[in-house]
4-hydroxybenzoate 3-monooxygenase (Psychrobacter aestuarii), 396 residues
Amino acid sequence: MNHKTKIAIIGAGPSGLLLGQLLTKAGIDNIILERQTGEYVLSRIRAGVLEQGTVSLIRESGAGERMDKEGLVHTGTDFSFQGEHFHIDLEPYTNGKHVVVYGQTEVTRDLMEAREKTGGVTIYQAQNVELHDIESDAPYVTYQHEGEVHRLDCDYIAGCDGFHGVSRKSIPADQLEEYEKVYPFGWLGLMSDTPPVNDELVYCAHERGFALCSMRSPTRSRYYIQVPDTDKIEDWNEEKFWDELKRRIPPEMAERLVTGPAIEMSIAPLRSYVCETMQYGRVFLLGDAAHIVPPTGAKGLNLAASDVDTAYRLFVKIYEDDRTDLIPRYQEICLARTWKAVRFSWWMTMLLHRFHSAGRFDFRAQQAEFDYFIHSEAGRATIAENYVGLPFEALE
Ligand code: FAS
Ligand code: PHB
């Protein structure tokens, strides 16, 4: 089948769904092509913390009702180093800003439901998606669905297909400006229907390794511990996880920790990656298709949302006022914000994780860095304003 739309969106993760919802509300026709099923997309356990900019954008898309009802407003976040527990209030350093704890799975579910209600078209199980004539003014996408090959003609393509997607790979390799740093460890995550051990998140640095105490609701907890990049999920079980977590979190928290069966356990590798080519011809890269950050700074999903904000406002300008002159602003704005989020995520990762190959000096220097930032007003302000998210930049 041959069909046509204005914006072909590749990928129905949070980037694709949020962009699709905003464009539909603006009356800009779009179709999403997703290679998995909706259930599979929802089964992936990922982010948990939303910046205020992300919350506002989800509301603007019309998918914010449940988030506003069930999301947990957090006005502070906690840290610990070798078991000593500290709290940072976010609002005094950020003119009253805070974060909302609401799982990416729920954001995705809300966006899927909103899209269905507004009649947006998402083609799931679209296989072998290929981008064509992306340097022309008549690009198109081909894909297979239910055994048939289809062609989707469009004006622009939004590559929202994540790090392993096809969009970035469709840009000529000699046009890609890429930067990468791979960390020698991953995060082993566990989800359990147990009450969170603390009322706000706790980022724990310890000589045995990093740990994070997070949550999804007052009855559902999300925990992570740093594991060597050679570890496999088969090397771990619930009991071993809980024992190790207790060794890394403050003793009073270990005392009151409620353990229970794992709903989910998985290991995520940690890397920092930036593709500075975020727009090429008629293709725009958004979210994980363009950049990956270690989850230590809770930036991945939020950075994707800020790309969506810029892309959405650009497309409105193009279709309402023919402002194609603004197209270069997309990459300019998104890259400036991306590198600041990449820096913060890298800095939080270097500050809080144990580099076992590093020497005693490095561990002492890490401790001093932590002491300075946790105990100085300037240090706390720096952490707070990056954690709640830097402001979105306007197109003009
Ligand atoms: P996504 O990867 O979410 O979505 C891309 C979509 O495109 C997928 O549905 C995929 O199936 C589809 N796709 C891929 N190739 C395709 C093709 N060829 N054709 C059609 N469709 C295709 N961020 C945080 O802020 N906090 C966290 O704690 C956190 N934890 C994470 C844990 C893991 C294991 C991972 C991988 C990421 C984590 N992230 C976290 C980052 C994560 O939340 C991403 O930033 C977020 O999913 C980005 O959303 P998208 O850009 O939509 O990409
Ligand atoms: C989570 O709850 O999954 C989460 C929260 C904050 C992070 C990373 C992950 O920095």
The longest strand covers residues 178-192. Residues 168 and 289 are 6 Å apart (CA to CA). The chain has a mean pLDDT of 97. Residues 2-74+99-179+272-353 form a domain with the FAD/NAD(P)-binding domain fold (CATH 3.50.50.60).
